[in-house]
């Protein structure tokens, strides 16, 4: 879903989050927005891009929603309590089971929706009962938990795209996201998860944040290492140890994922695969097409054609 204009953006929020009193206006030029998402009723990964200012009252129904920003600024308000959203801040849980106010300005927001039934199921598996995160709304996650959480979300996206919603890999990936969500905060009801030091690497998190915040901008491994404050060799060792890939393989996957999302988004007539690929930093269409097909199991032009038929 994407479009131009303040009224169109307000209507989109109304539909997606039962909005009330949603108001939108341009900040500099005209308002533009795009909303994409994948997943199912138990778990979905979503992204909101907005050029403009938006405020209103929304609700998330029966989902626990974790959000973070890679661009812009915003805040949520519940009664007298206000929580700012800032670039680089740790993921936070949006208010659960109650309507609340949002205020966004020129944002690129990632949201992960986890249904309460999935969390309840994992809570029973871990013998912790009904593990509600309501007490941790708008509480920033710790560094180690954030790295584990983002890695689990990345694996879930890959499983859904590669194997589909009926696959065993997607079913297990959903449960892994729920487990890491319950471990995202230092909850007194459960012990520290085993192996918590494996991903307890702030330098790696800095590198991942740098890459996510700059996609589709092309960067070098030296750029990433400098942003993380480590040597190139140290960066490569961290990626191989924790993510089983090189920094540049990870960066290319981010750009491929962006192409995939844009090919499935509403596009003006005449937009081609080459247009989207070049916008996302791919200069050689042959190598791009091979990498895309390997990652998503179909040619990019088929993704675009299938979406236009819908």
Structure description:
By secondary structure, this protein is of the alpha+beta class. The protein has a domain at 2-117: Jelly Rolls, CATH 2.60.120.10. Helix content is 45%, strand content 23%. The chain is built from 11 helices and 9 strands. It has helices at residues 6-17, 116-125, 143-163, 168-182, 202-214, 221-228, 232-243, 247-264, 273-279, 285-296, 300-309, and strands spanning 2-4, 20-25, 32-39, 43-51, 53-58, 63-78, 81-86, 92-93, 100-115. Strands 1, 2, 3, 4, 5, 6, 7, 8 and 9 form a 9-stranded antiparallel sheet that branches. Strand 6 and strand 7 (81-86) form a beta hairpin. The longest helix is centred in the middle third of the chain and has 21 residues, at 143-163.
Topology:
Layout: E1 2-4, H1 6-17, E2 20-25, E3 32-39, E4 43-51, E5 53-58, E6 63-78, E7 81-86, E8 92-93, E9 100-115, H2 116-125, H3 143-163, H4 168-182, H5 202-214, H6 221-228, H7 232-243, H8 247-264, H9 273-279, H10 285-296, H11 300-309
Antiparallel strand pairs: 1-3, 2-5, 3-4, 4-9, 5-9, 6-7, 6-8, 6-9
Helix pairs in contact: 2-4, 3-4, 5-6
């Amino acid at each position: 879903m994407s479009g131009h204009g303040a009224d169109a953006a307000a209507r989109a929020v109304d539909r997606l989050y039962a909005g009330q009193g949603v108001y939108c206006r341009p900040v500099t030029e005209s308002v533009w927005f795009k909303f994409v998402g994948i997943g199912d009723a138990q778990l979905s990964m979503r992204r909101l891009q907005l050029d403009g200012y938006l405020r209103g009252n929304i609700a998330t129904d029966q989902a626990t929603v974790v959000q973070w920003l890679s661009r812009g600024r915003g805040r949520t308000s519940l009664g007298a309590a206000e929580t700012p959203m800032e670039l680089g801040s740790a993921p936070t849980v949006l208010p659960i089971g109650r309507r609340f106010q949002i205020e966004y300005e020129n944002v690129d927001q990632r949201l992960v929706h986890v249904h309460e039934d999935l969390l309840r199921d994992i809570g029973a598996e871990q013998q912790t009962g009904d593990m509600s995160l309501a007490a941790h709304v708008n509480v920033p996650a710790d560094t180690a938990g954030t790295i584990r959480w983002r890695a689990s979300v990345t694996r879930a996206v890959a499983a859904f795209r590669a194997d589909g919603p009926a696959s065993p890999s997607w079913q297990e990936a959903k449960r892994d996201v729920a487990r890491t969500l319950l471990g995202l905060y230092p909850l007194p009801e459960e012990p520290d998860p085993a192996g918590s030091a494996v991903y307890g690497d702030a330098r790696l998190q800095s590198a991942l944040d740098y890459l996510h915040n700059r996609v589709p901008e092309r960067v070098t491994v030296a750029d990433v290492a400098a942003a993380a404050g480590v040597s190139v060799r140290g960066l490569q060792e961290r990626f191989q140890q924790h993510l089983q890939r090189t920094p540049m393989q990870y960066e290319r996957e981010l750009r491929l994922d962006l192409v995939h999302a844009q090919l499935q988004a509403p596009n003006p007539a005449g937009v081609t695969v080459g247009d989207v690929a070049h916008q996302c930093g791919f200069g050689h269409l042959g190598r791009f097409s091979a990498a895309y097909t390997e990652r998503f199991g179909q040619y990019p032009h088929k993704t675009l054609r299938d979406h236009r038929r819908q």
